[in-house]
């Protein structure tokens, strides 16, 4: 097995060195060379780096979005069916900036999906529509449960809900539920909204604490639906006299 891995890595390293440009992010290259299986191309090395650092990708993607801001005329519209998806104005065809710009943050995308023009070309890569960091951030935002181990490590060993030791059975949760974000925070500037899907709003909590929290949230939503139903019924009634 070791001989097979050594042979595979030798071939991958030869391919990587052949394709590697004169300028390449040093941290990405160092990460690639430290992998059990070396990625054979610069683009795969870039993807591997950001997959291994989703929290770093989350911070960078939100910072790039803050640099872009929301496009003129865009407002966040959601529904009960899709409020779990983060708002992404540049993925909308009406506001898309086209090839060469990231559809998540709106900033120019350069070689290998990098977010900075390290190669001095002066223009974005017209074949790119995502930053490699924004791909990793989007996966964290839409499937945070896949990053349980990384979130546990970043948080430590204490459950923030029960104040007890965080067990191995801990589960990923949003501190502020996403249905409340839509109801209470929808008027915030777009880049700020992304933090509710990112690391600032993610936590790992023990299963019993998560169950109790979900029950409280379910009762809250049921109360809101009842209030809305009553308001609708009262609105349909004819005014007296």
Structure summary:
Helices cover 46% and strands 3% of the residues. The protein is mainly α and 241 residues long.
Provide tags for this entry.
241 residues, mainly alpha, 2 domains, two-stranded antiparallel sheet, 9 helices, 46% helix
Number of domains: 2
Q: Provide the structure class.
A: mainly alpha
Outline:
flat
Radius of gyration: 23 Å
Can you give the helix content as a percent range?
40-55%
Q: Going across the major beta sheet, what is the strand order?
A: 1-2
Mean pLDDT: 91
User: How many helices?
Assistant: 9
Spans with pLDDT under 50 lasting ≥5 residues?
none
Main sheet characteristics: 2 strands, antiparallel
SSE order, one letter for each helix or strand: HHHHHHEHHEH
Please give the number of β-strands.
2
User: Span between N and C termini?
Assistant: 88 Å
Give the percentage of residues in beta strands. under 5%
Describe this structure in words.
The chain is mostly helical and 241 residues long. It folds into two domains: 2-137, no CATH class; 143-236, no CATH class. The chain has nine helices and two strands; from the N terminus they run H-H-H-H-H-H-E-H-H-E-H. It has helices spanning 2-19, 26-33, 42-52, 54-68, 132-142, 148-155, 178-184, 190-193, 207-236; strands at residues 171-174, 202-205. Strands 1-2 form a two-stranded antiparallel ribbon. The longest helix has 30 residues, at 207-236. The radius of gyration is 23 Å and the shape is flat. The protein starts with a helix and ends in a 5-residue tail after the last helix.
